[in-house]
Amino acid sequence: MSFKADSKVLIQGIAQTLGSTHAALMKAYGTNVVAGVSAGKGGQTLHDIPVFDMVDQALPVVGPVDITAIFAPAYLVLDAALEAIAAGIRQIIIITEGVPPLDMVRLVAKAEATDTLVIGPSCPGVIVPGKVLLGTHPSEFYIPGPVGLISRSGTLTYEIARELTRSGLGQSTCVGIGGDAIVGSSFQQWLQILEEDDATEVIVLVGEIGGASEEAAARYIDEAIDKPVIAYIAGHHAPKGRRLGHAGAIITAGLADLGADVGTAESKMAAFKQAKVPVAQRASQIPDLVKKVLKKSGHKKK
After folding, report:
1. pLDDT the model gives residue 241
2. I need a surface site. Which of 94, 131, 166, 210 has the fewest CB within 10 A?
3. Cα(79)–Cα(217) distance, rounded to whole angstroms?
4. 173 to each of 88, 161, 194, 219, how far by Cα in Å?
5. DSSP H or E segment with residue 287
6. Under 8 Å CB-to-CB from 117, ≥6 apart: which residues?
7. What are phi and psi of 144, to 5 degrees?
8. What is the pLDDT of residue 240?
9. Is 246 assigned a catalytic role?
10. Which residues of the chain have pLDDT under 50?
11. Who's near 65: CB < 8 A, 6+ residues apart?
């Protein structure tokens, strides 16, 4: 992972309303946005960012790019991501929601074959507070600090970051991995990234009902993560079978070898308890749990 203040960033779909709005906000935060791409808009300039029709037309002008943020319509996301991979870009953030599942299957296979990190779709992206904003995070909720935050929910990422900030707890890196049924990166990948990140002292993992990714993350924490982790599961009171907006947020049963009740809040909380990970009952409890962990580890407020 290389999300640095001087990382060169491309925005695909920059002429879309959401892309244009957040391109301006990212640039105002200090993100090094070097170019935008929107077919048919080449030659224009948006927010002092040069716009090109294709990625391979932009790179000869602006040089190699480290990261692309994709705001293109869902049916164009696969083409946009494959175009970026072909141009050598190895960190892709897909903000768009509702990308066709078969498109994501093809993209995930291509990403694995090319060692490309794909975040999203249906995600708010990544923020390294004080350094770089890549996506739709409301930057005023974040301050630099020792807490790494991983979440399936964009709005819960914002809410919990704000709770941490109001308690004087800054964040190292915050990422929403996405709410679509098939996403590019997993909790395990991000746990490993934050485990290796010197700026991160404690990790907050925000899950939700549906699927088995939290149960798998709990196993991974137990086996491979040394840094302390705090967990929170959204959707405690949702009835079984109720879809909650995120494509993955529906309780299913009988997945793999994880038991008949996998996907429920109870299953996920039990998995974290078995891995000795404290679980907050409410989002507002997270700052106190983080402070306890930091105090135990000898962290000194800077």
Report:
1. 57
2. 166
3. 31
4. 24, 10, 8, 22
5. helix 286-297
6. 1, 90, 91, 92, 111, 184, 185, 189
7. -65, 145
8. 62
9. yes
10. 250-256
11. 8, 9, 10, 34, 35, 58, 59, 87, 89
In this structure, what token pair is assigned to residue 7? 């990382």
Residue 212: per-residue pLDDT: 81
Whether 69 and 135 have beta carbons less than 8 Å apart is answered as yes
Q: Are strands 171-176 and 125-128 parallel, antiparallel or unpaired?
A: antiparallel
Structure tokens at 226: 């040394």
CA distances from 64 to 89, 155, 175 (A): 8, 32, 24
Angle (CA) 166 300 288, round 5°: 40
pLDDT at residue number 248: 53
- Number of Cβ within 10 Å of residue 274's Cβ equals 12
pLDDT digits (tens, 9 = 90+) for 223-260: 999 999 999 998 777 666 555 555 555 444 444 455 55
**pLDDT score for 299:** 65
Active-site option among 47, 236, 237, 246: 246
Structure tokens given for 284: 């507002």
